[in-house]
Protein: LysR family transcriptional regulator
Organism: Halovulum marinum
Amino acid sequence: MPMTEAMSQKRFAEMGVRMAQPNWDDLRIFLAVARAESLTRAAKALRLDPATVGRRIARLEEALAAALFVKSPQGYVLTEPGQRLLEHAQTVEEAMRGALSPGLDASDRLSGTVRIGAPDGCATYLLPQVCAAIHAEHPGLEVQIVALPRVFNLSKREADMAIAVSRPAAGRLTVQRLADYKLHLTAAQSYLDRAAPIRGKADLKGHPVVGYIPDMIFDRELDYLAELGVTRPTIASNSVAVQLSFVREGAGLGIVHDFTLPFAPGVVRVLPEQISLARSFYLIRHADDRRVARLNRFADALAARFRAEVTRLEAA
């Protein structure tokens, strides 16, 4: 019996369920529906017809003698047996990935595809040069960066790994501190030349402030303006890159990452001795991926280059 099939039998036995012939393809479809919470979205990801996906789920439920999903207004929600199956199916999935996906070739080079999720500031100003350097050493590797201003769901396999600005509080995840970074209040020199002088925090009143859209702050660590006593920015965006562009164009004051300043000529720090923030980036991975050598190697390379790039840009 192949390793993955034997593992499936063992996992199902632990659930108290018997299957005459575990079918990885059915489990793959189950995982897609569990992650998408929709037959239509799962079918699109799998490149199958939604009716086919529905039949395969029904077949799996019949084989397990258990309902795996309940249809609700929010979509397909896992039942208790479905939740139990999800954990075991993910373990089988990792065994399949380890057995079938490329890893290291004969020259000890990485290959295959790695997808990284990251907030847009990190994805725009740090990851391109970091990942380009890794790719130059491993040309058989395909690197995908997904830049979104939100927290990534690794359980739904939106990415192989994600970078975040705070440690997750729950989930079967491993967390590695990547690097600390600094932020300062800034403005375009052109703005400061025409605006009222700023000699202390009391002088900030009346100046337009650039920041996050308040109801779109997806992590409390991004609520920078609260530390200035500002409750609502004058000009706002959910994107770090857009905020920096506003500051660069002289729209007002804004707290920005020090590592972005080399990309914004003419933007200078304001009251750097009085207003200075520090935050950290964390690399987050699904716990099951610790057994995937290819992802371990990539994570190590990413961490080393990432720290070096933050240091280089902040010193520039």
In short: The chain has three domains: 3-100, 112-179+280-315, 180-278. Residues 1-9, 14-22, 102-107 have pLDDT under 50 and may be disordered.
